[in-house]
Design a protein that fits this description.
Length: 233
């Protein structure tokens, strides 16, 4: 009985080593790993040592039949060698699945981060409109830039500042202001360069909004108009 167990153990040991070497030489064609030989040998031995458990689950009497028929030892050796070679396939397939799942999860996280950044950019003008800032911390106005603004640009600023919606479309401003489309577009582009308006690309298309600098210009022009009326009186 002891000799029988020693023979089976020797078969599993040799088969595990041979299967590990086969996996190692196959792996060299696709991967560079300094610890690849040791990993393949360990996986091969683990696969070969699990053959008796597999035979137990399948209710096979192969281990007992070997005692009466030594030729059955060749079949057991083949099972051990096959399990040793297949161990790398099972382990590396599981690792590849984990890497693939991790890549998919990473891609989803990156997409969520991009969506959050886009949402943050869309919400920032709304927050600036609703939250009162410190007058001393506002943007510095260049009076030369204000003097260069024509009537169309000033009218567009007023439309953006007094409209019911924070984000407005070009068509909506044209319809409300009674302006031409080309004139409104030119005014918006000139105000965009001066950072008095901004634009976002929403799911409905391009939408325009007034910045804090633009609101200061509107307030300054309104104050100047009131002062001019008092002087005239």
């Amino acid at each position: 009985m002891l000799d029988h167990l020693l023979i089976l153990s020797a078969v599993m040991l040799v088969s595990g080593i041979l299967g590990g070497l086969v996996n190692y030489y196959q792996m060299l064609f696709t991967e560079e790993d300094p610890a690849g030989l040791a990993r393949c040998l360990i996986m091969g031995l683990c696969g070969a040592l699990m053959v008796p458990i597999f035979l137990k689950f399948t209710q096979s009497d192969l281990l007992i039949e070997i005692q009466g028929d030594p030729s059955r030892l060749l079949l057991f050796t083949g099972y051990c060698l096959l399990a040793a070679i297949a161990s790398r396939m099972f382990v590396f397939n599981a690792a590849r699945r984990q890497l693939r799942d991790a890549s998919i999860a990473r891609a989803r996280v990156e997409n969520l981060e991009q969506e959050l950044r886009a949402m943050q950019l869309e919400m920032m003008p709304l927050l600036e409109h609703e939250i009162e800032g410190d007058p001393d911390q506002g943007p510095t106005l260049d009076f030369n830039e204000i003097r260069k603004l024509d009537e169309n640009a000033l009218h567009v600023l007023k439309l953006l500042n007094t409209g019911e919606c924070v984000f407005r479309s070009l068509g909506g401003m044209v319809q409300e202001g009674g302006m031409e489309t080309n004139s409104t577009a030119r005014a918006l582009n000139s105000l965009l360069v001066l950072e008095m308006v901004g634009k976002i690309h929403s799911h409905l298309g391009i939408r325009w909004y007034i910045t804090d600098k633009g609101r200061q210009v509107v307030r300054r022009r309104s104050s100047q108009a009131v002062a001019d009326e008092r002087v005239g009186e």
